[in-house]
Amino acid sequence: MKRFFSLKMRASRNVDGEPHHISGAEKIIQEEDASDFATALIDRALHHAKGQPDFINLKFELLDERGILRLPALAVTTVQTHTPAEGLAQMVEILRGKMGIANAEQIVALFQQCGNMRGAAIVDVDSLARLEPDRQRGVRVTYMDDADSSSKGPTNAKNHFREAIVLGTKVAYAPHLLGELCISDDPDYVTGYIASREIGYCRITCLKEKGSPIGGRIFLFRGNAEDLQETIAFLEKQPVLVTGVPGSSFRQDRWKRLQTELDAMEVDGLRRKLLVQDASADSRVQVGGQELLMLASNNYLGLAGDERLANAASAAAAKWGVGSTGSRLVSGTQREQDCLERELALFKHAEDAVLFNSGYVANLATISTLCGRDDVIFSDELNHASIIDGCRLARSRIVIYRHNDMDDLERKLQAIRPVRGLVVSDAVFSMDGDIVRLPRLLELARHYGLFSMIDEAHATGVIGLGGHGTVSHFGLEEGPDITVGTLSKALGGEGGFVCGRGMLCEYLRNRARGFIFTTAMSPVTAAVARAALRILQESPELPRRLLDNVKVFVDALRENGIQTATQSAIVPIPIGDERQAAQIATELRAHGIFLSAIRYPTVARGQARLRAALMATHTCEDLRNAAQTIAAVIGEQHN
Ligand SMILES: *Cc1c(COP(=O)(O)O)cnc(C)c1O
Predict the structure, then answer these.
(1) Residues lining ligand 1, judged by CB closer than 6 Å?
(2) 384 a catalytic residue
(3) Torsion of CA 384, 389, 395, 401, to 10 degrees
(4) pLDDT tens per residue, range 403-440
(5) What is the DSSP letter of 94?
(6) Which DSSP symbol is given to 404?
(7) 49 class by beta-carbon count within 10 Å (0-12 exposed, 13-18 middle, 19+ buried)
(8) What does the DSSP assignment read for 47-59?
């Protein structure tokens, strides 16, 4: 007979001697899957957005298979509402109209009282009495899981939607409960639901203001004191597997799933749209007939729209045509790609360089080729997504160290003493504009015999003498083992590269799947990058001009009362509140400034910011005016 276990994880962090909850999860699993799921849950606990845990509790408990109840998932429907008033009115209407509960209005009003409980309130629908034994904590529903989740394998990602359906289903089937009302306590998540056996799982898309911490669960009870004991015992102890949960069953409509997710993003203000521009890239751009000062591009030196690169592209197209015709190892190495690799190596003072089709692919391919299951990768918590994805693809053990904190890195190296692996960091961090503490990082990597890898996407052409990057910035004799760069930012074109020892490049050309199994970059693209490198070398004053502009802009912001600092061309302007940051960016657009608002999950909650990226081609006047406008709009919003 198969053996089933309940597996529970709780992670917490000590704050002033008090444990603070970070994350929790539970599964009902078969014995053979136990270690996989345990690993996935530990992984989830270790890499939670709310921070790193000091304690992780894992609890396994044998269940009696015959005691497990299998329940069909409630059917999901969605009611679109656009304001909290409309959403709450719908909730009352459904309670009264479809579930026949007379006190609907009073029950919904109880949400004002039962926020911030870990568990749920139990409310007598007739007397409105609160019946949960512990008014602080509420009742916690446990011993439940999606019956199909184990067949999909462990994942360390939490799927809130599926977990809510599992919970809503168990509650709907609990004895003496008529159903559940739920408003999420996540300030950014405004969708909630009503669940009951008659109406199913009914999502209501707006039940509170964005940013409001109000939230909670109300279980609707009808019965006597004895009944209540039975209800609570069921909620707290009865193992339940829910079958046919949407998203885990193959029968679900594949298009409907996408539409539901898109709708949810729309409602939460997280659905993103492309802004189409109608003129060549410059420090001013055309969007929808409006001219905007561009403070959000990676075109640091203004090369993307440079005539000399356009001419290089035309000349290369005339000579080579536009396609590379194949993978580099098979048919796609033309003289342009070969020369570009050698010129990049010279520029970076490396023995050799390898091209990839983008910086993203360069990181993915390099990390996953050099590291495998036996490696430990030490990665800065603010590293770029392409580094994170490369680490995942490598299937190595990943150890995240605090942002640019070399003491934390050293502690972790000391504790783990890895046999093989990699230390990897952005050179210039893309959200804060600060520079990696490279000398110490290299020293640590060398001492522990690990590869060192630096991603110079925002450093090449920006920092160091003549834009040569981090090694030059620090005046080091010897650089990292592996330097990744992109041709798409300061160099104005597209493509990625890796440089280092000849042996490294030879190894990547033979092993990296992102090099082998893709068509080489076009000879036109390669020729453009060569021209950009030539311009950079002939005009070493360009990066200087860029950093002078940064100083003008930062000083002007300070004069207008906005404190900020940077070491590169990225200037973070702290705002804090997510909605405010988005509103300020929209308002700035109306004032002719193109600037992006960066929000959770790209940065931590409550640390939303505007992110300005400067260009060598901005004029001082542009920047002083922009600083003034930005300060004025922020001032208005705060009042
Ligand atoms: C932009 C960026 C990349 C990706 O480079 P692409 O050439 O745009 O794919 C990689 N790493 C960092 C740090 C970046 O900022």
Answers:
(1) 358-360, 363, 384, 386, 426, 430, 455, 457-458, 486, 488, 496
(2) no
(3) 20
(4) 999 999 999 999 999 999 999 999 999 999 999 999 99
(5) I
(6) T
(7) exposed
(8) TBTTB--SEEEEE
Please state whether the peptide bond connecting residue 601 to the residue before it is cis, i.e. omega within 30 degrees of 0. yes
Q: Taking residues 273-279, report their average pLDDT.
A: 82
C-alpha angle 397/159/239, rounded to 5°?
A: 100
Which structure tokens are listed for 398? 């990943």
Mean pLDDT in residue range 217-222: 95
| Catalytic residue check, 430 | yes
d(CA 553, CA 433): 14
The pLDDT of residue 157 is 60
Cα–ligand 1 centroid distance for 624 (angstroms)? 29
In the numeric block, which tokens belong to residue 616? 């060598």
Computed over its alpha carbons, how large is the radius of gyration of the chain?
A: 28
Question: Nearest residue CA, atom 6 of ligand 1?
Answer: 359
Please give the C-alpha separations between residue 342 and each of 270, 352, 533, in angstroms, as whole numbers: 43, 6, 12
Whose Cα sits closest to atom 5 in ligand 1?
359
- In the reported structure, the alpha carbon of residue 500 is separated from the centroid of ligand 1 by a whole-number distance in angstroms of 18
Map residue 354 onto helix, strand or coil: strand
- Residue 613 β-bridge partners: 296, 570
Pocket test for ligand 1, best of 386, 387, 453, 491 (most atoms within 8 A of CB): 386
Closest CA to 293 of 623, 628, 638, 54: 623
Q: Which pair of structure tokens corresponds to residue 243?
A: 């079958």
**CB crowding 450-469: b at 16 or more within 10 Å, else e:** bbbbbbbbbbbbbbbebbbb
- C-beta of residue 481 within 8 angstroms of C-beta of residue 501: yes
Contact 266, 565 (CB under 8 A): no
CA distance 502 to 510: 12
Residue 455 CA to ligand 1 centre (angstroms): 8
Concatenating the DSSP letter of every residue in 299-338 gives -TTS-TT-HHHHHHHHHHHHHH-S---SBTTTT---HHHH
CA distance to 470, 472, 475, 496, 578, per residue, from 442 (Å): 12, 14, 13, 23, 36
Cα 302 to ligand 1 centre (Å)? 17
Query: Given its phi and psi angles, is residue 12 left (phi above 0), alpha (psi -120 to 50 degrees) or beta?
Result: beta
Residue 564 has pLDDT above 80, yes or no: yes
User: What single letter denotes the amino acid at residue 252?
Assistant: Q
Report the distance separating Cα 572 and Cα 554, nearest Å: 10
Alpha helices of 53-142 — where are they, by DSSP H? 84-93, 104-109
**∠ at Cα 364 (360, 369), nearest 5°?**
150
pTM over 0.90? The answer is no
Give residues with Cβ within 8 angstroms of 155, minimum separation 6: 40
Residue of 196, 430, 452, 522 marked active site: 430
Name 58's bridge partners. Answer: 9
* In 147-203, alpha helices (H): 149-152, 160-172
Phi then psi for residue 218, to 5 deg, are -125, 125
Cα 124 to Cα 120: distance, rounded to the nearest angstrom:
13
Which neighbouring-strand residues pair with 284?
293
Annotated active-site residue in 176, 384, 489, 618: 489
pLDDT in tens, 251-272: 556 777 677 777 766 665 667 7
Residue whose CA is closest, atom 14 of ligand 1? 457
Residue 357, amino acid: N
pLDDT value at residue 393: 96
- Name the residue of 364, 379, 430 whose CB sits within 8 Å of the most ligand 1 atoms, as the mutation to test its pocket: 430
CB of 375 closer than 8 Å to CB of 420: yes
